[in-house]
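#lab-general

N.A. 3:47 PM
ok so I finally got the sequence cleaned up, no stray characters, all 626 residues accounted for. can someone with queue access submit it? mine expired

B.Y. 3:52 PM
send it over

N.A. 3:53 PM
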Amino acid sequence: MAFNQFTNLDFNDLRTQIKNYLRSNSSFTDFDFEGSNFSILIDTLAYNSYITSYNTNMAVNESFIDSATLRENVVSLARNIGYVPRSKKASIAKVSFSVDITGKAVQSVKLHKGIVAVGSISGGNYIFSIPDDITATPDPSGIVRFENISIYEGTYLTKTFKVNDSLPDAKYIIPNQNVDTSTIRVTVKTNVIENYVPYTNIFDVNKESRLFLTQEIEDEKYQILFGDGTLGKKPKDGSDIEVSYILTNGIEGNDAANFNFSGKLTYMLGGVETSIDDGITGLSTLQASENGDSIESIDNIKYLAPRVYASQYRAVTPNDYTSLIPFLYPNIDSVSAYGGEELDPPQYGKVYITVKPKNGEILSDVAKESIRTDLKKYTVGGIKQEFVDLKYLYVEYDSTVSYDSGYVPNKQELHSRILSAIETYAKSSDINSFGGRLKYSKLVSIIDKVDTGITSNITKIVMKRIMIPEYNLLANYEICYGNEFHADMEGFNIRSSAFKLEGVAGNVYLTDLPYSDGKTGTVKFFTIVDNAINYINENAGIVDYKKGEIILYPTTITSSSVNAGIEIEVTPESNDIIAKESIYIVLDNTGSTLNLKEDTIVAGANKSGTNYVPPSSFISTKKFTR
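B.Y. 4:20 PM
back already:
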């Protein structure tokens, strides 16, 4: 008779299955398992089966990248498909300084690798180093200029290994965590000194290629691998391997702008290296430290590894770009890429890329150029990359939440909990990514679920963009929302904050009036005089309600009431807001309104409902400005 198959991991169910099996045997048909010592043996069998099943399940889970939970297993599985997880990244600043060596017979001055400066950040002081020596020559006036030097946040360290071929399983492991692998330098010393470079691809690799490979092992440490004498040169027995690297604090080193020089400068005098201690100017900061980042997370490895593998390290389709760019440039929160053929009119042979950085609102020109340069190694077919700055689309809500006072003793505490729940939703992947979508039903549901005392909520939303004018210049403007506008035929679907126009006294606002087709309309400028609307330009631009687009004809804006620019809000046709192309949605608590209203019907104070007035579900068109 076949033994029953265990179908779950529950201890009691396992115990029951064992007893049922024994009862099916004629020798134990009337046996009392509960009242005998046999019960202990059954418990032991059930417990052993439970532990074995659990361990087997966990072991199998760790064999697949989707279900693995231990970092070393995820990294190992990613390595099997050629993906190298990103190390911690040092924040990089660019500085310049000069050295006055007037009167000295100096051919060149060397800035030694290692510590260069101490940078000041609000959280404290951080060491900045360089991984390589930098040499500069004096100009005719006797000034040596070190210009546009990249300095890395972190401490410069070295580790030396001895090659011993008698140890077949010798490993060269950097003993520290928090290493920025891009700063690793490897030198092999025998009778000569040979510099090894990082492995990038298998092409043109032979037995004399001086290459090394870095791979992450357990405890977030790194192992240095060399060639075997066929693919890549193998270090000779007895040689010394010197590995230098920078230990970094990652993201904590960002935003350092003030630096004090702490480096070592020397020059050769009579064959002797001589230190320079004077004539050194202060460090001039060309770029504050940026792009420091933490080691790649497990979730990110699981997401990127199969996608980069699918792209085969080539950039052809938009999906290839969304996989490769985070792999090449770590300081990225989200990437959007789309082909020029999707535009109107089409732009063939181009791919448009929008990047949201982790730090800051838009990607710097330096970072764009760096990514563009790196992408050249993967681009095929002459595809041209165009970077488009992301457009923030702010979504604001006006929510009135009804509650039962019998269940909600603290109104202010409920208010805070609702705001916290909305803030959590605002940071979720539903919204916080390109191609994200604010799901109105989900927002309303999240508010209702904050507390059982909430009886209902009426939530209205508007979309807002901030237009940054070219002050005091005649310019036209295009403001895209990527979502259809609601077109109330009476107008005032669009409302703005105040601004000033050349030759017009007082604050000016803009609004709209749809044409008879309800698909397009005109933009109007107006002022408010004695609480009455006074139109000063009834053809200031055009509105495309279907495309969600506002175009302003050439005009000269001199100032705005809001420091960031001119806030322009519109009423959407749908409460589900979508982030298309280069648009990025921000669910903005700051500009939103949350009101709590006691539900007197549910609370019993007004059972008939005669005195209860529910809040309106519609945006009032009587509102003329922001």
